[in-house]
Fold:
Amino acid sequence: MTTTPATAIILGTGLGRLTDEIDIIQTIPYTEIPNFPQSTVEGHRGALIFGKLGGKDVLAMQGRFHYYEGYAMKEVTFAVRVMYELGIKTLFVSNASGGTNPAFSVGDLMIITDHINFFPENPLRGKNFPTGPRFPDMHEVYDKELIRMADEIAQEKGIKVQHGVYLGTQGPTFETPAEYRMFARLGADAVGMSTVPEVIVAHHCGMKVFGISVITDLGGFDNPVEVSHEEVQRAANEVQPKMTEIMREIIRRS
Ligand code: HPA
Structure:
């Protein structure tokens, strides 16, 4: 059976089980793909999965590359370039994040409406790739129609969703209480260590993007709380069926 996906999915920490919903046609471990970086973090398996989800051909990237692992931005975003070459037109991304919006709770799903690039580097730095302009417009990076569909699906299925701005920072430290407060003041609703580089490159490649973030912990604000990678994985794991349902249904309807 052949597969020619136009849709790709990048799954975040504790959210890799969406691939259980995919009728897998072929799995290609990153180790077998020339020049592909390798995943190093616990909770991130490394493979490209080709199959069917919601009746559509999809390509899922199970495990992503983080800047904090020491990869260059070119490596962090390499897979998105491969996706472009494979004909991917729409990218779905998920991640775990810390809520900086005091109205959020642990376990909330946040549809990403916009982002703040707080990484020390832009992935498009350097010679411009001909997939897009030297100075890309960024006024609508997260596709409004896909957001509208997600809202509709969430409402139909009784799933509570938040909307918000995701701030991507390099990590690997979680934030100090002062940093959480700073990010909230800068306009972030959630902070995490991924997504922004891949989304910038996807946008430059002309892909539509839909992003969803699972709030796995809260900044603590006036009452600092401890955060750990294990807790982030556990919280993300609990919410992932809801995230899966929304993504599967958008893919089915679009
Ligand atoms: N900060 C940064 N990254 C994260 C967090 C956080 O609080 N939670 C999950 N990923």
